[in-house]
Amino acid sequence: MECRNCGTNLNIVVCDLVSAPLSNAYISEAELQKPEIYYPLCLYICEHCWLMQIEDYKVADEIFGEDYRYYSSFSTLWLNHAANYVKMIVSRLNLDATSKVMEIASNDGYLLQYFKIDGIPCFGVDPAEGPAQKANEMGIETIVSFFNLDMASEIVKLKGKQDLIIGNNVLAHVPDINNFVAGLEVCLSPQGTITMEFPHLMELIRQTQFDTIYHEHYSYLLLATVKSIFKKHGLRIYDVEKVFTHGGSLRIYACHTEDLSHPTKPTVDLIVNEERLQGLFEGQTYRDFQRRVNEIRNRFLQFLIENRMAGKRIVAYGAAAKGNTLLNYCGIKGTELIEYVADASPFKQGFYLPGSRIPIVEPRRIFLDKPDFVIIFPWNIKNEIMKQLEGVREWGGKFVIPIPELEVIDA
Ligand SMILES: [Zn+2]
Questions:
Q1: Ligand 1 centroid to residue 50 C-alpha, Å
Q2: Residues of the chain with pLDDT > 90: what percent?
Q3: pLDDT one-digit tens code per residue, 255-300
Q4: N or C terminus: fewer CB in 10 A for the chain?
């Protein structure tokens, strides 16, 4: 296999999770009678450009098609994050009614709605039909499509060049990152800004966040790698911030390479240097990852088995991709160890998790059943979830966070 960015042969396997179904391929009652497709799930690091990546099985259409069940608006944490971002960026870039804003992977319009409130012209691009339709119904124009170089030219014809291009949690999810970034350059106005947020590979390695590895997530990114890809396409990262979503993300600010109105801030070199000091430009650093992953898996299984043998009831919260990677690598099937997973999204309730086939139920089931343990799969929003489930403490229930280290928390 060759690196998707630079073509170098990939020799280092960072983590082999063997195989798994697509993590967003929730199963309906009727589909329980049908087979499931498992794809290999193996992570490589490129020793030349340090792009960590999984093999591309050409399943993007399947992943983000009409069946896509993730609606950003169901998380109040995301809504707050979006509202704060819009407030910050509108003032920083002096955006007004004459500006042009585009968001890629705009989902159900959870972020663009705040530009709309401020009277700033905006539109979204997203391939998932369900969420895009919801955005359009709310009056947030959304083009139902993947974003790529061809689409970029279409957008410029239809909408002109953009003063702000936003992409949160999309850069890591595109199969052809070069084509995608080339498209960004085409759509950007001469003094425009691109902001993108993506999980920082440095944190994935540091905190053994192996459950963020799934087929929808093609690339695992360092700032140094993104910087060189942007440079190749005539773009320069002029600022970067750490944001605390997804267990540690970066928000980059980019402009055209020759745009003098945005001088490069020292934080860019500081973070690249931090990556260097963490040993992330050395193959050796990645070789210990699998051992740590296996330790987490074994401890999690040990916890489940011991408590079930002691007659305890265990359920989970959050039907997210993260939980599916963990469950599938643990080889968990059916409801013996974990009775169900509760999720607030009505688009997921009544379905089953891919692979493990654990049923997804309404959160109120937890309060009817009063289980001993509630596992929280989306550890990145664990505080928000524990607050929502505060009532669990009434019967002495405990929360369990499996990653980066198994942690049992009294409610
Ligand atoms: Zn490479």
A1: 6
A2: 87
A3: 999 999 999 999 999 999 999 999 999 999 999 999 999 999 999 9
A4: N
How much distance in Å is there from the Cα of 45 to the middle of ligand 1? 8
pLDDT band of residue 247 (cuts 50, 70, 90) is confident
Distance 55 CA to ligand 1 centre (A): 13
Q: How far is the CA of 227 from the centre of ligand 1 (A)?
A: 13
Q: Which amino acid is at 396?
A: G
Find all residues with CB under 8 Å of 306, minimum gap 6, and list them.
Answer: none
Please report the pLDDT score of residue 70 as a whole number.
65
pLDDT at 320: 87
How far apart are the C-alpha atoms of 196 and 164, rounded to whole Å?
11
Distance 106 CA to ligand 1 centre (A): 28
What mean pLDDT is reported for the chain? 94
Q: How far is the CA of 230 from the centre of ligand 1 (A)?
A: 14
Q: Which residues surround ligand 1, an ion (CB under 5 A)?
A: 3, 5-6, 8, 46, 48-49, 51
Alpha carbon distances (Å) from 251 to 134, 214, 244, 293, 329: 27, 22, 10, 27, 30
Nearest-angstrom CA–CA distance, 207 and 201:
10
Residue 58 pLDDT > 80: no
- Return d(Cα 148, Cα 339) in angstroms, integer: 42
Q: How far is the CA of 225 from the centre of ligand 1 (A)?
A: 9
C-alpha 295 to ligand 1 mean position (Å) = 29
**Confidence band of 74 (pLDDT split at 50, 70, 90):** low
For the CA atoms of 38, 293, 174, 252, the dihedral, rounded to the nearest 10 degrees, stands at 170
What pLDDT shows up at residue 210? 96
Per-residue pLDDT band for 59 (boundaries 50, 70, 90) equals: low
What is the pTM (predicted TM-score) of this model?
0.93
Compute the distance from residue 200 Cα to the ligand 1 centre, in Å.
17
Distances in Å between the Cα of 107 and the Cα atoms of 24, 49, 90, 209, 216 are: 15, 30, 20, 25, 15
- Tokens 């530009």, residue? 115
Please enumerate, as own/partner, the contacts of 383-389 that have beta carbons within 8 Å and a separation of 24 or more.
384/75, 384/76, 384/77, 385/317, 385/318, 386/411, 388/344, 388/363, 389/317, 389/363
**Tell me, what's the pLDDT at 216?**
87
